[in-house]
Design goal:
8 strands, alpha/beta
Length: 299
């Protein structure tokens, strides 16, 4: 090798190191390069996506989430929000605060107490820059669907102006009430069928009162997922994914084609997040599953 060839090789190596510094880190410290996502679907994660028996700390989960191109996590306690932000992540969906599965927003007898507790919660979430709060319809306990809708509309009308002033969205989640095991469904929840929730949103008619669309529950209760999304995307603030029927990975082992669903969402006027709520199937490597499922939604 002559001197000119040697210099050329050194220059090429320096260029490669500048372009892909993570490759050198991976060799020395087992640090893998960050995945660059296409960006049409902004994806988030849950702690449960890492497995119920995960040995990772939340700090380590955040590091891996950032590396895989996630934007943040759902339903993380405020005390852990600084850990998210340490890795450039966000709390994508705040918890329900004072709203409970038993009563939700459909029971008029709790509205006064609920409003008193919810208003400062909205203020605190807004002060932290979090823009979406999940909420719950509630158990019917024999209540007629029409009356439940009337009660929900009445309560949401009481708080919608504060939500608008604070630029916070309150999003009620749909849940399937066909499966009684709480791992797979929510018994007696009023917001099972999609049209109940969209009907409530239409009546409240606020850009800050919307729905968390859980695609797992939607498929179980109503099916026709793509058409439901297309006709009511204006009422959707956030998405959750999970495989059907066992709430595992969203791959070819289950019945819904999430790659197609991702294309549908990307084609719609939607700028929110799609968060993975599935649990790894037994024997699966959680990090590999997260990477594969995020690839599926990366259209």
């Amino acid at each position: 090798m002559n001197r000119r060839d040697a210099l050329a090789m050194l220059a090429a190596g320096a260029t490669l190191a500048r372009a892909w510094p993570a490759l050198g880190q991976q060799a020395e410290g087992n640090v893998q390069p960050k995945v660059v996502r296409k960006g049409r679907i902004k994806q988030g994660l849950w702690k449960t996506t890492f497995g119920e028996d995960s040995k990772l700390t939340f700090d380590e989960m955040c590091r891996e989430a950032a590396r895989l191109g996630a934007h943040g996590f759902d339903l993380i306690e405020p005390a852990e929000w600084p850990t998210l932000r340490k890795y450039g992540l966000k709390p994508l969906l705040a918890g329900a605060g004072p709203v409970t599965f038993d009563n939700g927003i459909i029971h008029a007898e709790v509205h006064d107490d609920l409003e008193k507790a919810l208003r400062p919660y909205i203020d605190s979430v807004a002060a932290e820059g979090v823009r979406t709060i999940i909420s719950i319809g509630g158990k019917r306990r024999g209540m007629e669907y029409e009356r439940a809708a009337d009660n929900a509309v009445a309560f949401l009308n009481r708080v919608k102006h504060q939500l608008e002033d604070k630029n916070v969205v309150l999003a009620v989640e749909n849940m399937n009430n066909r499966r009684t095991d709480p791992r797979f469904g929510r018994e007696d929840q009023v917001f099972g069928h999609w049209d109940w929730g969209t009907g409530v949103c239409e009546r409240v008619n606020s850009p800050n009162v919307k729905i968390v669309c859980d695609l797992y529950h939607l498929q179980i209760m109503d099916g026709d997922v793509a058409e439901h999304l297309r006709k009511s995307i204006q009422w959707i603030a956030h998405f959750h994914t999970a495989g059907i029927p066992q709430r595992n990975e969203i791959n070819g082992t289950q019945e819904l084609n999430y790659r197609f669903i991702a294309d549908v969402i990307a084609s719609l006027p939607y700028t929110g997040y799609v968060s993975h709520e599935w649990r790894p199937a037994p024997g699966r490597d959680a990090l590999k599953s997260i990477a594969e499922c995020m690839d599926i939604m990366d259209v």
